[in-house]
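Deviations from the work plan: none for this task. Representative record:
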Amino acid sequence: MQGFPFQPEQASTIARSVDYLYFFITAVTLFFTGIIFATIFYFMIRYRRRSPDEKPKAIEGSLPLEIMWTAIPTLIVALIFVWGSTLYFRNAEPPRGSMEIFVTGKQWMWKIEHPEGQREINELHVPVGRPVKLTMTSEDVIHDFFVPAFRVKKDVNPGRYTSLWFQPTKVGTFHLFCAQYCGAFHAGMIGSVIVMEPDEYERWLSGGVAGESMEAAGEKLFQANGCITCHLADGKGPAPSLLGVYGQPVHLTDGQTVTADDAYVRESILLPRAKIVAGYTPIMPSYQGQLTEEQIGNLIAYIRLLGKVQAKPQEEGKQ
Amino acid sequence: MSTATLEPRVHAPRNYLNADYGWKSWLFTLDHKRIALLYMVSVTFFFIIGGSFAVLMRIHLVEPQGALVQPETYNKLFTMHGIVMIFFFLIPSIPAVLGNFLVPLMVGARDLAFPKLNLLSWYIYLVGGMFTLYAGLAGGVDTGWTFYTPYSSTYSNTQVTAVAIGVFITGFSSILTGLNFIVTIHKMRAPGLTWFRMPLFLWAMYATSIIMVLGTPVLAITIFLLALEHLFHVGIFSPALGGDPLLFQHLFWFYSHPAVYIMILPAMGVVSEIIACFARKRIFGYKIVAFSSVAIAVLGFLVWGHHMFVTGQSIYEGLIFSLLSFLVAIPSAIKVFNWTSTLYKGSISYDAPMLYALGFIGLFTMGGLTGLFLASLATDVHLNGTYFIVAHFHYIMVGGAVMGYLGGIHFWWPKISGRKYPNGWAALAAAIIFVGFNLTFFPQFLLGYLGMPRRYAFYPAEFQVLNVMSSAGATVLGVGYLIPLIYLMWSMRYGPVAESNPWGATGLEWKTPSPPPTENFPEIPVVTEEAYAYAEEEAPLD
């Protein structure tokens, strides 16, 4: 189902399935519009007024008809609802082993950071055939990351992370649009997603501007900002060790349990008193306003790396 | 009055128009019919203002790099277009003009329940409108009509506060109008006019009034919180102050989605009246059509989250809002089927109001069905924030609500003005508007599917062809809107004098002279028949 007039290019694994649903709803729309228009035209001609004093007989209505035209649309929208929701749920979570890329939106540009340390602006290079997960946040207002050819879109909010994933199926250059109005040059906040052959992508990664990896940058920040003074690796410091924490459940003083994901780690850096790890006191200062979104992204990358290191039980979480 | 003087004196009896000519008799009138006319002049003024913003936008978008203005100016144009059209034209249009004129006449009363509140609501509307226009002239506002935070609260350095105050003030005019209608419909129906004998226009106005009274305060609160944050840096919506920008979207759409039904339900009421009259049939499934208005009003409050599928809200939240949004499609579909069936075995004439009403059904059907793409989660992800949305809501709000308003104006014009307009011109205008509308907005569905985001002051060149088509269609549409303005004004002086019931319609408003006397009815009428009793012989009162 590619090549219809006015159809955008399909360049991701989900594009085709979204288009099938799109075509189905189009067919429903055309069918009902056709029926309504045809019936109205037919009645207009068939029952046109033939003499000025015509008095047609009254018709009260018809319960069977009402039931019919309540039931049929209900069934059709139920089908569309189930279809649309199933697709949406299936595509909500990125597959395991996705490449992780960090995206920051700001008026009016997209800043992209690859885990290997490659940074780019308004361009996103990815290899074909591999799932890519974007973790996104904004430095100022709400933006929206939209790649029509991939049929994906997600708001990029200040103060929180959203994520989006796609798996490109085609080599080429595709539009990246900001789809949430963000101020004077909203229309200029556009860029390209450049999908490359894997070996070409490797060459692109190794060549040129590679700075240090996100994890290495995060490790430096971890030292420079004094995190390391309390979050001792052996768990004997005033703050919990961060080894083996990321992605695991964390027990809090209020008895709740949360998962140490990006949003939790981010909150713990900026609002450390919001969730206190069981057994620790709220002594950590807030880093709100002292770290850029990119620096927070780097710290999270480092903590994610620490999460892969085996830790002793009981010593999990971070305050 | 040259035509009138040729006729015997009986044709110019005392009525609400010639009762007094002084300016005070207009500005301090408590007559619901005169207040309706004050509203008609004001909403027409705002329609022309909002329309000229649209003209500038469509000229600008003819070229990919933008043909006319700087991006900042373009952003102000679409913002002011939206604010003026929604808050100062669409929301007051049918309720405050036709509703004001017709609700007392249709219930068989001498006025609304609270005539002074009614006049007050017009002044409030005017103050709000002037505030907003002043803000527009003194620098404008560039947030989009949606005022999303934190852009509006922290980053925009345009006249956000002034415009927000204008919208805040105007909200109270809606609340007062809604309150007036609810009380009038409950307490002032003529003897014999039971709920199920009421014309469907009254059912629609009743449902609309409930939304106005319940929904508008939420908008007022939202704007108040916005101002609190903007002026005193209380952290509510801005993450930098510890607030949550998505909270604003929840509050905003909790009003602004039902507001769509404030615009479309009255138009549905108008269409029911017109279809019944020009097919000379009782509305097919009267009770079901009446209850579907109420169902839409209730369900309309539960679907706001479908504006937020891509914000990062929980996927389960998305699931619930998707389901509820699909449900609201059902009563709308039922209405369309019932209107169509009303034509069956009718006696259909093609006078201008009927053409507008049929145009409404066509455009509303397309607008409603394209809503399915947006209620469905997977397709909404792609289409949200693109021109598909723009096309969809214009089919509902312009194709639907404006067609309905124009249909109603044409239907009741002889009653309002006491004059008839040239039917041929009116039919031509209806056809031009229908065609021009589709030429303007259909290409925008295609642009949206192709991925062109809305609110872009310039765009990639590949989208130019469809944009030029849309702009060309807008020219046709603009001409279509100008023609009625001309012949309706012409008819006020030169049109043939209208009799009390020129269309042979049922309903109490047609049983009193055109234009009606100030007290509406010499004697309060007694209703002895169902609504739309076209099958029996009618005996006019006058």
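Chain B has a mean pLDDT of 92.
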